[in-house]
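Work through this:
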Amino acid sequence: MEIEAGERCSSCGQENAPIFKNPLPGEKQDELVTAAKNKASLYAELDKLLELYGRERGELIRVLYGAQKIFGYLPPEVQAYIAAKMDIPISEVNGVVTFYTLFVTEPRGRHTVRVCTGTACYVKGAADIMDKFKQELKLDGRETGEDGLFTLTSTRCIGACGMAPVLTVDEEVYGNLTAKDVITILEKYRSDPVAAGSGTAAAEKAEIQPEARANENHDQVH
């Protein structure tokens, strides 16, 4: 016999408790369980990081940097967790996060492209490079592409004016660029999402010949 909420027991006369059916399909439940387990594992990694640095107040920046490596960004709940574990006011943690451009509070792509827009880079075409990235990544006002692979930002001088215009992809430095080099750089990371190297310039990374680029610039000037 099927019992519905609101009916009364034939023996004691009390109203039956409502029966709540799970509104989620099995696959969705599995996704949520997996997500919860993944999140728990991330916090476990953060706990290890906190133990490594001894939860010393002076190690806050190191902890935040490590936490961002683990989570990909620093949402409010992660900041609050760190503040509680290190016994630091949340306002202090948030103040550090918002002060340093290194830290981000929203999800970003797997790779972060930072185009230098300092004076030396700007006068040599940094704006054209930015525009080309926006076009190729179809950003349309966003910083992160829909595929979640790239986030595009601008940055001030990174100390490589001799290779202007310059950009970085994660920790890799690319210099002596034009807008034509954008596709080559993007394809490298699209074909090898975990691409890594030793921080060489684009002349090596994107197979761009510096001598040829120098000659091009010389011809343009003259």
Summary: The domain at 111-191 is CATH 3.40.30.10 (Glutaredoxin). Residues 26 and 32 are 10 Å apart (CA to CA).
